[in-house]
Design a protein that fits this description.
Structural class: alpha+beta
Strand order of the largest sheet: 1-2-4-5-6-3
Number of strands: 6
CATH superfamily: Hotdog Thioesterase
Mean pLDDT: 97
Radius of gyration: 14 Å
CATH topology: Thiol Ester Dehydrase, Chain A
Strand content: 35-45%
Number of helices: 2
Number of domains: 1
Largest sheet: 6 strands, antiparallel
Helix content: 10-25%
Low-confidence stretches: none
Length: 128
């Protein structure tokens, strides 16, 4: 299945798709020192959120999908060099609204989970 959204995203910062299917995606991201907040290598949560968000967007896979809301939990710290895998499963669509459950793992350990509310718009959000 072809990805038809977020085509210009920086895959080093938001992950590389491993698998995409109807209402499902799996995305991998190798964290780097660039993402660290201090000398211990602790990765800033924004990069983990970005991975999860990208996974949600391509699970919906609509050219005009946008994030409307998210309820998330950061469960474990991530260190630079860790390889994270996000899996997203989109639920039933209600009009333009669709919820997407995302889990991010470092190996077998869940480090993040969330529910993303996505909207599929008739036209791009920046086009009047």
């Amino acid at each position: 299945m072809d990805i038809i959204t977020h085509k210009m995203i920086d895959k080093e910062l938001c992950g590389r798709p491993l698998l995409i299917d109807d209402n499902y995606s799996k995305v991998e991201m190798k964290t780097s020192q660039r993402m660290a907040v201090d000398v211990t290598g602790l990765v800033h949560g924004g990069f983990i959120f970005g991975l999860a968000d990208y996974s949600a967007m391509i699970a919906v896979n609509h050219p005009n999908v946008v994030l409307g809301a998210a309820e998330v939990k950061f469960l474990k710290p991530v260190k630079s060099g860790d390889v994270l895998v996000a899996e997203a499963r989109a639920g039933e669509k209600e009009g333009k609204r669709q919820s997407v459950a995302v889990v991010v793992k470092n190996g077998d350990t869940e480090v993040f989970k969330g529910m993303f509310i996505c909207f599929t718009l008739d036209k791009h959000v920046l086009i009047n």
